[in-house]
Fold:
Amino acid sequence: MPVGHSGAMATMKNRSGSVVELTAVHRFTDSDYGELSLRLREPANLQEATAVAWALTGRGFVKTVTTEDEAREDMVTAYLNADAAGRRVSLVTSTNEEAQQINDTIQAALVDAGRLSDQVVAIGQNEQRLLVGDVVQTRRNDSGTGVENRALWTIQDIRPDGVRLVAVTDSGDVKDVSAEYVADHVHLAYASTVHGIQGETTDDACPSGSHAGGRLPGRSGRIVPRRTPRRRARARGPHASSVE
Structure:
């Protein structure tokens, strides 16, 4: 069941007239990976972290690249392939700048493929171009419209006075926000930092190995992938024996 700002937990909170009690949690259907994911979160030391890294590599969950540009290109490709297949994938980066580079690249690729139209444009945070169909994130609570900081939305409509947003996990959760709010507090969110993505549930996850500040393991932003995540790791050299 999805969690996060716009997941099932939020839906129950907004629409339920009674108390809902969570009685059970199932972390992963693959118990071996569930145990590995716990080791990934809190390694005892560098040796344990390295052992986890190689365990993930052995299971095919780590792809080693030699440059940050190659890692970004691979993450963009992963998103486009997942989107074409109707799956949600979380792209997790170390910085907002890296996330926005990936966001702009994905948006341009979707326009080139005819999956987005650039005929109607809204202006988002830092003068970013926003299109109907874009995945965006709101960055300020607004009690008047009911949007929350870091919630994820798809742009359904763009009008002169604002945009209509639909929650990515609940098509019944529709909000209208002003053009002024969009310009100050809305940006693209195909990729996000580890802080921005936490709490989301997706079909897959592609965290960059660099997002943990050079350490492995890099936590996957407390995202909940329905499938096991693929991590992009940058090796120190062509024959590196450790992973960043």
